[in-house]
Write a structure and sequence with these properties.
7-stranded antiparallel sheet; mainly beta; Beta-galactosidase, Chain A, domain 5; 2 helices; about 300 residues; 10-stranded antiparallel sheet; globular
């Protein structure tokens, strides 16, 4: 780990091992602006016109990975993170703490640790209620992926009508979701959403992903995000523990925690584990995706 300048920000922090590298911003955030295989291209989208900017009351997406709280609403969700967070070194990583949001009285914190040798990043997202009354919210971890790839979301195991009379899980659509859009592939084993820089209309879907993972494939690199789905807990957006959104600029891979009522001074945590693999050909079919991803999920189990 060492302090660097990045994208016009003078106070950033680089974490790396032989397999993976990431950059955490120290002038805005908390935010991970870069994640890449060692020496490779950034898997996260960067908004070049916003890099290096600080201050102001306007929310900026910047790119990278951020922490929000759900359900989404304006202006609450879009509280700016344009000021320097407090950054402290912890074992194998960093703790990044934002000042309490003045309007919501919610404080955001992310602990980011990198395994010593493997391509495994562990993140603990924390929301703390610093206000005077209780707030019901859900932690929401959004990774803004670079264009040109495809999100992969697992389907529940197929079962016959005779053996399964109850529904498997919710699949939630937004008013602008078009299931006939060619960027979608609705397979028996996987849902696939392709990012297309030429497509003008955004797309979004929310799902209760009981398997607790989703992936993004980009030019031979594969990003896997692991999280826990709690089947007996309420979730926002009609029960979604995972959401994915795309427009012409990027694609978001988002995990969501359960809805929690935070009393003053209470906090809620949401954990993600990231894995980055190189030279992975996922193909475009259920069989090719399963053949490529299944052994990597098993490798990730051994790293956690």
């Amino acid at each position: 780990m060492h302090k660097i300048s990045y994208g016009g920000w003078e106070n950033c922090y680089a974490l790396s091992n032989r397999a993976v590298e990431l950059v955490v911003t120290g002038d805005v955030g908390p935010r991970v602006i870069r994640l890449a295989p060692r020496g490779g291209s950034n898997l996260f989208k960067e908004y070049k016109e916003m890099l290096g900017q600080t201050g102001g009351d306007e929310w900026r997406i910047y790119g990278g990975h951020r922490l929000w709280h759900s359900p989404e609403a304006k202006p609450r969700t879009y509280s700016p993170d344009n000021s320097p967070p407090a950054v402290a070194e912890i074992r194998n990583g960093l703790r990044v703490v934002q000042d309490t949001e003045p309007d919501t009285r919610i404080q955001k914190q992310i602990d980011i640790t990198l395994d010593a040798a493997s391509p495994h990043v562990h993140l603990v997202h924390r929301l703390t209620n610093r206000g005077l009354w209780s707030v019901t919210l859900a932690p929401w971890a959004l990774s803004v992926m670079a264009p040109g790839g495809a999100a992969i979301v697992p389907q529940p195991p197929y079962a016959s009508h005779e053996s399964s009379l109850l529904p498997a899980r919710p699949v939630v659509l937004w008013p602008y979701t078009n299931m006939a859009d060619k960027r979608w592939s609705w397979g028996e084993k996987f849902i696939r959403l392709r990012q297309d820089p030429k497509a003008k209309n955004p797309q979004k879907v929310g799902i209760a992903v009981q398997q607790g993972w989703a992936a993004y494939a980009l030019k031979g690199d594969l990003f896997i995000k692991r999280f826990t789905h709690f089947p007996d807990c309420p979730y926002p957006d009609f029960g979604c523990s995972f959401e994915t959104f795309t427009n012409a600029d990027m694609l978001e891979v988002e995990s969501v925690g359960p809805l929690t009522c935070l009393e003053p001074g209470q906090a809620v945590e949401h954990v993600e584990d990231w894995f980055v693999f190189r030279n992975v050909d996922v193909g475009r079919t259920d069989d090719s995706i399963g053949k490529a991803v299944t052994p990597l999920l098993a490798r990730g189990d051994k790293m956690m």
